[in-house]
Design goal:
The complex is a heterodimer of chains A (about 400) and B (about 425). Chain A has about 400 residues and is mainly alpha-helical. Helix content of chain A is about 65%, strand content about 5%. Chain A has 12 helices and 7 strands. In chain A, a hairpin with a 2-residue loop joins strand 1 and strand 2. The longest helix of chain A has about 35 residues. Chain B has 17 helices and no strands. The chains are: A mainly alpha (about 400), B mainly alpha (about 425). Chains A and B meet through helix 2, helix 4, helix 5, helix 11 and helix 12 of A and helix 2, helix 11, helix 12, helix 15 and helix 17 of B.
Chain lengths: ~400, ~425
C-alpha cells in the first residue's frame, strides 16, 4: 500500500534549472556572472592590446614629475616646479572652495526666492516665479559663460582707474572690480601672538568655537531653568557678550588691520584677489542651483498642512514663533533630502570650471596634466575617484543631519 | 403693550435705504492693489523695490532690443550705423544662422535633410506625448530612427534597412515565443537580430555610400543646435529602456544582479557628466577592439546614455516603490510569472507615476548636451565660443549670441516642463 503522506521523491533534473523557482535565480545569476566576466575580459583584453600597440602602460609615477604650468588661483603654495600631484591638490582645494561658497549662497538665494514666491505680494511672487523658470530652463554652462563674459569683457580694465579723470573708481575706496578679477581688502594682524598668519587665524577659530560652546551651555542652562520653574531667563545679552567680548578683545590685542588694494603700475596690488573665473563659477552655480532650491523650499513649506498653522495660532503663538517652532521644523524634513542632492549637483557642476579656466581638479588633473602627460586613463580614473569620494562624503554628512531632524517615531 | 410697529415713533426708519456702492477702496483695482501689493509697510517696500528692479531691467534692455540691427555684415558696421546709441547687433544671428543651427561643416546643399528630419520628428513624437492620437501613428514612431539616420547621415540606404530588418525579425520572433516563455523569446530575438546584422553588414558592398541617393555626411560634420537636439533625443530614447532595466535589476532579489545594478547606478550618479565625456573622448577608444574606429559622436552617445540611464533608473525605482504591495501580490496570485507580472501589472502603473520624473531627467539631459562643447564638439555653445566669436567680423558680440542660445534652450525646456505639468494633471485621477 502506498502512503499518501510521503511526498514524491524528487530527483534533480536539468530542466529544473529553468523551470523551478528555487534554482532559476541561481541559473540567471550564473549566466550574469559569466557574461560580466566575459565583458570584463573582453574590455581588459582590448585595453591591454591597445596600450601595447600605443607603447603605453598604466603607471602613476607621473604624479611626482614637475607640472611645469602655473595656476593663478590657489590656496596653497604652488609654482610651476611643483609636482603634478601638488597641482591636483591645488585643484581639489579649489573645487572644495567653489563648491562650499556656492552651496552657501545657493541656499541663501533659494530660501529667499522660495519664501518670497509664496508671498501674498502679487508682483514679488510673480517676479520670483520668473526667476525660477528662467534660471532652471537654461543650461548652467551658458550661465557660467555669460557671467564670465561680464567679468572679463564688461568690467573696466585697471588702467581705467588711473589718472585724474578716471572712468572707473573703486567702490567705497575698498573694492576694485576689474576685468582681471575683484580686489577686496585683506585682514591681517599687526602684532599676532604667533609668527605665522595661519596660526593666528587658527587661534581666532578656536576662540569662536569656544564662544559657540559657551553659548550652547548657556542655552542649555536656560532650558533647564525653564523646565524647573516655567520661566525662561533672558539669554540674549549674555550670549551676545560671550560672542563679542573675547572676539573683540582678541582682535584688539593682535592689532587687526586691513590691507586695502591699491593701483600700482598697471595692476592692483595688495588685498585679496578673487579671480574672474572663480566669481563666474561661484555666482552662476549659486544662482542656477538657487532656482532649484527655491522650488524645493516652496514645496516643503506647502507640504505643511494649513491646520498646523491654525493650531499654532490657536495655542496663542505669535507669527514668528509659528514659523520657527511649528512650520520650519516640519518643512525642513521635506526640504533636506532634495537639498542634499542639490549640494551634490553643485559639487559635480563645479567641474564646469574647465569651460572658464578656473583651476579646479577637472581643469588641472583632467585638463592640463592629462594633455601634458598623455596619461588619459590614470587621470580620468583619479578624477572619478575624487568626485565619487566627495559625493559619498557629502551624502553621508547630510544623511547624518537628516537623521537628526527627521520625525522621531516611537 | 407697546406698539412697536407704530409708525408714529420718529426715530425708527420705515423705508429701506437704497444700497450704496462699496467704498472706492474696497472695489476693483484699488482693492486688488491694496490686498496684493500694499497690504503692509514691508509689503509696500517690497513692491516698490520690485517695480524699480523691473523698470531698470526694461529701461536697459528694451531700447537695446528695439534698436537692434538685423542686416549688417560685421560688428564694425553695426557700431558705425548705431553711432554710439544703444542697440543690439542681431545681424550676427541672421548672418550666421546656418552655422548656429547646423554647425559649420554640414554641406549647405543638404540642409533640407535635417529640416525634413526635424519635421518628421514632430510627427513621430506626437503619439508618444499625446495619448489621444491614433495609436497607428506609433508605427511611424518606430520607423523614425531609421528614417532620421538615413536623412541626416545619408550614405547607402542599406545600412538603416539592415538594422530595421534585424529589429523587425527580432520583434516578430519575440511576438511568437515571448508570450509564453520570456527568456526564450528575448534571448532568441537578440540572437536573430545579431545574425541578421552580421550577415547584412557583410552583404553591403564596399563603397555603397559613394553612389548613394543622399551623399554621406560624417558625424564630425554635425554641429550647432542640431547636434544638441540629436544628442538629447537619441540619449533620452535609448536611456529610458536601459533605465527601466536597471531599476528592475536594483529591485531584484538576486544578489549578484542587484549588486551590479547598484554599483553601476551609484557610480554614475557620483561622478559629473564631464568626467564621463572625458572617458568618451580620451579613454573609451582604448576599450574597443584595436582595429575598430568608433567615432566621437557614438562614443558620446554611449556615455550620455549610460549617464541618464542611471538617473532614470532612480526615478523608475521611486515609481516601483510607490506601488502598493498588493499589486505585486495580486499579480503573483493570478499565477503570472515575473516577466508577465512586470509587463501587464507593475510597469504600466509604475511608469505612469514616474513620467514627470523622467521628463525632468530628460530636460536636465537636454541642457547637459551643451557640455560636449568642452570636449571640442561644435554644438550651439561650441559654435558660439569657437568659430563665431573668434571670427574677425563678430569678435565681441556676446549678448546677442548668448541671449539667442539661452532663448532657444529656454523655449524647448520650458515647453517640455509645461507639457510635464499638463500630463501630471491629466494622469492625476483623484479617488
Amino acid at each position: 500500500m502506498t502512503t499518501l503522506t510521503d511526498p514524491p521523491k524528487e530527483s534533480f533534473r536539468l530542466s529544473m534549472l529553468i523551470n523551478d523557482t528555487r534554482y532559476r535565480s541561481l541559473t540567471f545569476q550564473a549566466i550574469a556572472a559569466v557574461a560580466l566576466a566575459l565583458a570584463i575580459w573582453y574590455l581588459g583584453n582590448n585595453l591591454i592590446q591597445n596600450l601595447r600597440a600605443a607603447g603605453l602602460n598604466i603607471s602613476y609615477s607621473f604624479l611626482g614629475d614637475p607640472a611645469g604650468y602655473d595656476i593663478n588661483q590657489r590656496l596653497v603654495e604652488y609654482d610651476s616646479q611643483s609636482s603634478h600631484a601638488r597641482a591636483a591638490l591645488v585643484g581639489v582645494l579649489n573645487t572644495i572652495l567653489v563648491a562650499f561658497l556656492a552651496c552657501v549662497t545657493a541656499t541663501i538665494f533659494g530660501v529667499i526666492a522660495g519664501v518670497l514666491r509664496l508671498s501674498n505680494n502679487w508682483i514679488v511672487s510673480k517676479l520670483m516665479a520668473v526667476y525660477v523658470e528662467i534660471f532652471r530652463n537654461i543650461p548652467v554652462l551658458i550661465w557660467i559663460i555669460i557671467i564670465f563674459t561680464i567679468m572679463t569683457a564688461v568690467m573696466p580694465g585697471p588702467r581705467e582707474f588711473r589718472g585724474d579723470n578716471a572712468t572707473s573708481s573703486m567702490v567705497l575706496d575698498l573694492f576694485a572690480f576689474t576685468n582681471r578679477g575683484v580686489y577686496i581688502p585683506m585682514p591681517f594682524f599687526e602684532n599676532g601672538l604667533f609668527g605665522s598668519a595661519t596660526l593666528n587665524w587658527v587661534l581666532v577659530l578656536l576662540v569662536a568655537a569656544g564662544s559657540w560652546y559657551a553659548v550652547r551651555t548657556n542655552n542649555a542652562r536656560a532650558a533647564n531653568v525653564q523646565a524647573e520653574t516655567g520661566v525662561r531667563p533672558k539669554t540674549l545679552w549674555i550670549n551676545l557678550a560671550i560672542w563679542l567680548v573675547p572676539f573683540i578683545a582678541l582682535m584688539f590685542i593682535m592689532g587687526l588691520s586691513w590691507e586695502v588694494p591699491e593701483l600700482k603700475g598697471f595692476n592692483f596690488k595688495g588685498g585679496i584677489k578673487v579671480g574672474g573665473p572663480l566669481i563666474a563659477l561661484w555666482f552662476a552655480l549659486s544662482i542656477y542651483t538657487g532656482a532649484f532650491i527655491a522650488e524645493n523650499v516652496r514645496a516643503g513649506i506647502q507640504a505643511v498642512s494649513k491646520g498646523q498653522t491654525e493650531a499654532a495660532s490657536a495655542l496663542g503663538l505669535r507669527p514668528r514663533r509659528v514659523m520657527n517652532l511649528v512650520i520650519l521644523p516640519q518643512a525642513l524634513r521635506v526640504i533636506i533630502p532634495p537639498l542634499i542632492s542639490q549640494y551634490l549637483n553643485i559639487t559635480k557642476n563645479s567641474s564646469l570650471a574647465i569651460a572658464v579656466g578656473y583651476a579646479d581638479i577637472t581643469a588641472t588633473l583632467g585638463g592640463i596634466t592629462l594633455n601634458q602627460t598623455g596619461r588619459a586613463i590614470e587621470c580620468v580614473l583619479l578624477l572619478m575617484l575624487f568626485y565619487l569620494t566627495a559625493s559619498l562624503l557629502i551624502s553621508m554628512a547630510m544623511n547624518v543631519y537628516n537623521a537628526s531632524v527627521k520625525l522621531k517615531e516611537r | 403693550m407697546s406698539d412697536q410697529n407704530n409708525n408714529s415713533i420718529a426715530f425708527v426708519a420705515t423705508e429701506t435705504i437704497p444700497e450704496s456702492p462699496p467704498p472706492a477702496r474696497e472695489t476693483g483695482v484699488v482693492k486688488w492693489m491694496r490686498e496684493n501689493l500694499f497690504s503692509s509697510i514691508p509689503n509696500s517696500i517690497l513692491t516698490i523695490v520690485a517695480l524699480l528692479l523691473i523698470y531698470s531691467v526694461l529701461k536697459n534692455t528694451l531700447p537695446w532690443i528695439f534698436n537692434g540691427l538685423w542686416t549688417t555684415s560685421s560688428l564694425a558696421e553695426c557700431r558705425e550705423i548705431l553711432d554710439g546709441t544703444t542697440g543690439a547687433c542681431f545681424s550676427v544671428l541672421t548672418e550666421r544662422w546656418n552655422q548656429l543651427i547646423y554647425g559649420f561643416k554640414y554641406p549647405v546643399d543638404e540642409y533640407w535633410r535635417p529640416n525634413v528630419a526635424f519635421v518628421l520628428m514632430l510627427v513621430a513624437i506626437a503619439p508618444v506625448l499625446f495619448f489621444d492620437l491614433p495609436r497607428k501613428l506609433l508605427i511611424f514612431t518606430a520607423l523614425y530612427p531609421f528614417v532620421a539616420f538615413w536623412l541626416i547621415w545619408g550614405g547607402t540606404i542599406l545600412a538603416p534597412l539592415v538594422a530595421l530588418v534585424g529589429f523587425v525579425a527580432a520583434g516578430a520572433f519575440f511576438q511568437k515565443f515571448g508570450r509564453n516563455n520570456f527568456a526564450l523569446g528575448f534571448f532568441g530575438a537578440v540572437v536573430i537580430a545579431l545574425i541578421i546584422w552580421a550577415l547584412g553588414g557583410a552583404m553591403i558592398p564596399e563603397g555603397a555610400s559613394d553612389s548613394a541617393l543622399l551623399p554621406a555626411v560624417p558625424s564630425r560634420d554635425l554641429g550647432g543646435f542640431m547636434l544638441n537636439m540629436m544628442l538629447g533625443l537619441t540619449c533620452v530614447s535609448l536611456s529610458v529602456p536601459l533605465g527601466i532595466a536597471l531599476a528592475l535589476g536594483r529591485q531584484s532579489d538576486m544578489p549578484l544582479i542587484k549588486g551590479i545594478c547598484v554599483v553601476f547606478i551609484e557610480f554614475v550618479r557620483g561622478v559629473p557628466l564631464i568626467t564621463l565625456l572625458f572617458v568618451a573622448s580620451v579613454m573609451l577608444s582604448y576599450f574597443f577592439p584595436p582595429d575598430a574606429t568608433v567615432d566621437l559622436f557614438l562614443r558620446v552617445v554611449i556615455m550620455i546614455t549610460l549617464f541618464s540611464a542611471a538617473y532614470i533608473a532612480e526615478v523608475v525605482r521611486g515609481g516601483l516603490a510607490a506601488l502598493p504591495k498588493g499589486q505585486y501580490e495580486a499579480a503573483d496570485s493570478l499565477g503570472l510569472d515575473y516577466p508577465q507580472a512586470m509587463r501587464l501589472i507593475i510597469l504600466p502603473q509604475a511608469l505612469k507615476i514616474s513620467i514627470p520624473g523622467i521628463v525632468n531627467v530628460a530636460v536636465g539631459l537636454f541642457k547637459d548636451t551643451t557640455l560636449v562643447s568642452v570636449i571640442s564638439m561644435f554644438d550651439l555653445v561650441g559654435m558660439i565660443r569657437g568659430p563665431i566669436l573668434a571670427s574677425t567680423e563678430w569678435n565681441g558680440v556676446y549678448w546677442e549670441l548668448f541671449g539667442f542660445a539661452a532663448a532657444l534652450f529656454f523655449v524647448v525646456c520650458y515647453g517640455i516642463s509645461q507639457y510635464s505639468q499638463w500630463l501630471e494633471r491629466k494622469l492625476h485621477k483623484g479617488h
